[in-house]
Amino acid sequence: MRTEAPVAVKLSDYTPYPFEVEQVDLRFDLDPEDTRVRADLKIRRTGDKSAALELDGEALELKSIAIDGTALDKGAYEVTESGLTIASVPDEFTLTTDVKIAPASNTALSGLYMSGGRFCSQCESVGFRRITYYPDRPDVMSSFKVRMTADKETCPVLLSNGTPGESGDAGDGRHFAVWDDPHKKPSYLFALCAGDYDIYRDQFTTMSGKVIDLAIHVDKGDAERAAWAMDSLKRSMKWDEETYGREYDLGVFNIVAVRDFNFGAMENKGLNIFNSAYVLADEASATDADFEAIESIVAHEYFHNWTGNRITCRDWFQLCLKEGLTVFRDQNFSADMRSRPVQRIKDVIRLRARQFAEDAGPLAHSVRPDTYGAIDNLYTATVYEKGAEIIGMLRRMIGEETYRKGMDLYFERHDGQAVTIEDFYACFEKVSGQDFTQFRRWYAQAGTPEVTVEENWKADSNEIEITLRQKTPATPGQPVKQPVPIPLNMALLDEEGNLAEWMTVLEDEEVTLTFDLPDGTERPLVSVNRDFTAPVRLARSLSREDRLQLVRLETDPFNQWDGVQTLAKEEILALAEGSQAEPDADLVDAIATAIEGALGDPAYAALLTRLPDVGEMFLERQPADPVALNKARKKLQKAVAGKLEDLIISVLGQPSPQPFDPGAEQAGTRALRTAFITLLAGSGREDADTHLLKLYEAAPNMTEKLAALRGLAGLEGEARDKALADFEEAWKTNPLVMDKWFSVQAVTADAETVAKLAAHKDFDLRNPNRVRSVVAVFAMQNLSAFHAPDGSGYKVVEEIVRKADKANPSLGARLLTAFEQWRVLEPQARSEAEACLRRLQGSDLSKNSADIVARALG
Ligand code: ARG
Ligand code: ZN
Fold first, then answer.
1. Catalytic residue annotation
2. What is the sign, positive or negative, of the torsion defined by CA atoms of 444, 450, 456, 457?
3. How many CB atoms neighbour CB 13 within 10 A?
4. How many Å lie between the centroid of ligand 2 and the Cα of residue 167?
């Protein structure tokens, strides 16, 4: 059987819902196999007199239906696979439905499902329709009241949105609880959790003096591991007050951690639900990267309370309105908690790895698309990360103060509403007096703009001319692009530092800037897109000497780091293409010197040791040969490791900081240590494996233990086997840590090893974290093996994804995006990838996956 890709939904088809839902009363009678949901919807007609009442509903068994207490005749309504229609309804009425759902058999993890024997929900985007019949669209906002009953013993804790009300005994070993949410909300923000948890509690006093009860619900025995998440939550609450003047608006704030979750976390009003990977952490079991991710995701979901919940999206095309803005907010929070330049570099690494790749392939779409097939597939790096970059450009162009005024106006004008990108920009037009019509092209045009920089130094007149040109490549469905305003921070550099510093907004296709410099000035170097002010690719034909010089003179930390990246990219390409046999000594020196010069800021120094990933190189030259690129990258890494050998051995000979603290300072020290562990692993030293094994055994924290294990995993031999066996034995009962055990192997595995990992007794197709720890890691971070020219990587992934997709379409589709780069590959891998996609297209896939495959094949 073959699944057709879903029919496209179009932004231009938007029409308001013709009814208002004034009040929603939900009654849940919770049972794993037979949960009953009764919904009383108080509805009032607001549109067309003749409009039928159309409600969404999926995988529901309708038990009864009544209007104002009178059961409807069979002929009065129609039930389909996707909903329920009542042709004729009064102007004001209460609709009562009773449905049966089976949370225990819900493997899609959308709607109400079970994880670890507890009930939980995920409604964004369209999960609520799997709970009850409802207009499941974000522009229908209503007041929700929930009453649930459940078994007392297995479900002592009963949670939903808002504030807790009455609770008590319900007879028959059951009990009940009522939750009331005073804030109107769309259905995608509904949440319900019931089960037995350990609870980590704290309080937060808001700026107006209200005391909020905070609680994080976790698996039994895990409470202490929620301490960092709680600390992050309190800092987020404070930051949003100080930075945006936003106060929390309910008396309680609950977080529930669940092991089976399709994404990172979800911002349900007053009841955030998290993938447990982004809640639980301690020194022994979590890396600094985990601590950092927890901090930023806790912040992200908390910040949604204002940017997403109080003001939500009119329709799903506007997803970036809440996601881009909220990512921008969480990135700035992290920058304030840690180091701003380091944060910026990490954000750009992520943007380039995921968003630039997406923008350059068949899945490219605009930040606000005007059509989509499957809504779940819209939760992309483009919507999130590029969406955040656009807000960053907006802020740079109008300045921090005006930006804040615009945000204040946005909150004031639109609180309680479901709005659009246009509504958002109207606020900034008002406070700045500027017109953002052209700027909004950033939302409409897919593709990463390329900016070409040309310099012309006139020595006799001490003049420098800088010509900037922009061009956005064609993307699927968008052959012709218009220029977008590109804010570029720039500087002229000489031996003394900055000769000049300014921002140019490149509005048109081309602009030439001319600078008259004082007599006797040497040719200055031009620093472009400092701090990565714009999400563009730069094209400059500079000599290696000029590039080396730029790295040496650069005063902007981002650009210094990026200068090293560019040099490394060119070197890897030269080595991969065979135009050079060995790494250039001057270049290796320059990298080593930059690292040595940065040792005072170890987090930054660690980033300087990073070489561009194979996937990033795909954007540089095509067709791309991942196997050759991987070899070339390793060669360069080995040369850098050799150059820094003494430093590496001496740094790793020092003890790790004690006692452990997850904060930025110690994390920076550990980042450098792990960077050096990685270099040691790639050094080719004969004793590398025994040295790594010692480091593995002695490591007092997971950050360094895992770095040593990762290093070992890439080396054949006894030390590797010993460490992997030891790690498995030590952590076999901790699933989050076992995910790491699977990942360190997948990241260096060949197809055969992946098949073995997938056959391991702890590999669980139903658990997204576990599946991702093998399949996503292999397909997205181990590109030379995934894109193996014999097609073995594709075949092993195909087989697992087919199974995963059956149970969980959202997971299946996400994994399949790994194929997005197939067209740029060398001919052998390319034809194997295409054959695999064709096989998938001809088979029975979920709608989500069919959408990805159809677009990938384009
Ligand atoms: N809103 C959630 C967040 O920002 C993510 C929800 C993902 N939902 C989905 N259908 N992909 O963190
Ligand atoms: Zn979000």
1. 301
2. positive
3. 10
4. 32
Which homologous superfamily is 314-443 in? Neutral Protease Domain 2 (1.10.390.10)
- Does the fold of domain 643-857 match that of domain 1-195? no
State the pLDDT at residue 1.
63
Instruction: Report domain extents, the chain.
Output: 1-195, 314-443, 450-541, 643-857
Q: Compute the distance from residue 221 Cα to the ligand 2 centre, in Å.
A: 29
The tokens describing 542, both together, are: 């500079």
- The CB of 263 under 6 Å from ligand 1? The reply is yes
Residue 274 CB less than 6 A away from ligand 1: no
Average pLDDT of span 458-487: 97
What is the structure's pLDDT at 498? 87
Residue nearest atom 2 in ligand 1 by C-alpha distance: 266
User: Could you tell me the pTM of the whole model?
Assistant: 0.98
CATH number of 643-857: 1.25.50.10
Atom of ligand 1 nearest to the CA of 301: 12
In this predicted structure, which of 5-14, 377-386, 572-581, 660-669 has the lowest mean pLDDT? 5-14
Helices 827-841 and 792-807, packing angle to 10 deg? 30
Q: Does the predicted interface ipTM exceed a cut of 0.95?
A: yes
pLDDT for the residue 300: 99
Distance CA 737, CA 714 (A): 19
The domain covering 450-541 belongs, at the CATH homologous superfamily level, to: Aminopeptidase N, middle-beta domain (2.60.40.1840)
Question: Which residue minimizes the CA distance to atom 3 of ligand 1?
Answer: 266
304 half-sphere exposure, CB direction, 13 A CA radius: 27
CATH number of 1-195: 2.60.40.1730
Q: Which residues contact 756 (CB under 8 A, 6 or more apart)?
A: none
Q: Which residues surround ligand 2, an ion (CB under 5 A)?
A: 323, 326
